[in-house]
Every structure is written in C-alpha cells, then in structure tokens.
C-alpha cells in the first residue's frame, strides 16, 4: 500500500493535521498495522517537498506547532493517476514457503511436516479472519474476504505441493528421507 497516496487521498476531503490523518488512516486501513506518527510526519514532509501538499495553517500549542495540511492540484492529479493504475499482481507471495520446502528436502528435513504445520497455521488464521468478518462492518468483511481468498489459494498450493513432494525431491536431487509420506506418482490436478 502506498501510504503517501493514501494520505493524499484522505486530504481530498479537506485540510487535516497529521494526528487527524493518522486517525483516519488507522480507522480505515490500519486495523492490523497502524501507522506510527513518525511515518505520517515524514511522509507529509516528503509530500510537501514534492509540491503535492501545502501547509494550510499553523497553530501554536504546548509543544511543537501543529501544521494543517491541504492537498494541492498536483496532489489531486497524482492520486487520480495512482488510482487509475492497476496494481501489479503478486504471483510469488509464498516464495519463502517454496524456498523452505526445497531446502527442507535438500537438507533431509521433513518437508511434509513443514507443509502440515503451515497448513495448520493457515487454517488458524482463516478461523480468526472468519470470526472477524462475522463481527465486522462491510469494509472489514471485504478486507477479510480478500485475505481469505489468498489463504484459500495458498492452501490449494500446499495440497498440490504435498502431493508432489516425492517428485520434487527427485527433481532437485534431494537425499531420500526415511519415513517420508509416499504419494503415488500420479500427478495432482493441474491448475
């Protein structure tokens, strides 16, 4: 997620202080990872330097002065361009997991057990998200649906990989593992 573009778009509703931007961001997008104040102010400083926001007012306070930021015409154009640009699909979200499977095979460790533990972790997270979805508003439901769809795809990959472990081990030249689940050589369904 582009924090800069998100903060810019939030400014389209009207000028805001950094604190208000953080609160609006966290309320809409930061449930699992709220912004740090330092992120907000460093991002606003960069946007100000790039001419995408301007200081709309300064209020004295007990501490540092509070700046109120407003989006500029260039900022609106930048947000429009960003919103119109499709996101690059991320086909290798689980590349770390693939790497772990191959390394487990190459080092004689239990790749099947690794996949079983990962499957259990995915299912645990899916239960949490399903519960959150039931209790959430529409925005939360959509966020959870997105995550659940990705986790379901990951689970399918875990199943396909489990069915192909012996073949993968032979392909990469991994040492034989005693006690490894033996799966018939028939190919798992193609995707």
UniProtKB/TrEMBL annotation:
Listed InterPro entries: Tscrpt_reg_PadR_N, WH-like_DNA-bd_sf, WH_DNA-bd_sf
Signal peptide: none
Matches recorded under Pfam families: PadR
The Transcription regulator PadR N-terminal domain, residue ranges: 7-76
PANTHER family: NEGATIVE TRANSCRIPTION REGULATOR PADR, TRANSCRIPTIONAL REGULATOR YQJI
Record's protein name: Putative PadR-family transcriptional regulator
Species of origin: Streptomyces clavuligerus
């Amino acid at each position: 997620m582009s924090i800069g573009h998100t903060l810019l778009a939030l400014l389209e509703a009207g000028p805001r202080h950094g604190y208000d931007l953080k609160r609006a961001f966290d309320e809409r997008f930061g449930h699992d990872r709220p912004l740090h104040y330092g992120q907000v102010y460093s991002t606003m400083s960069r946007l100000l330097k790039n001419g995408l926001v301007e200081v709309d007012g300064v209020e004295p306070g007990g501490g540092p002065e509070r700046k109120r930021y407003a989006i500029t015409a260039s900022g609106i154009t930048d947000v429009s361009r960003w919103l119109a640009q499709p996101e690059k699909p991320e086909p290798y979200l689980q590349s770390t997991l693939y790497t772990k499977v191959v390394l487990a095979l190459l080092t004689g460790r239990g790749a099947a057990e690794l996949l079983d533990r990962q499957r259990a972790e995915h299912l645990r997270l899916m239960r949490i998200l399903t519960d959150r979805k039931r209790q959430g508003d529409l925005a939360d439901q959509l966020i959870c649906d997105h995550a659940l769809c990705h986790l379901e795809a990951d689970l399918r990959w875990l199943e396909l990989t489990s069915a192909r472990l012996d073949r993968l081990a032979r392909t990469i030249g991994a040492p034989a593992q005693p006690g490894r689940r033996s799966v018939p050589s028939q190919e798992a369904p193609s995707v």
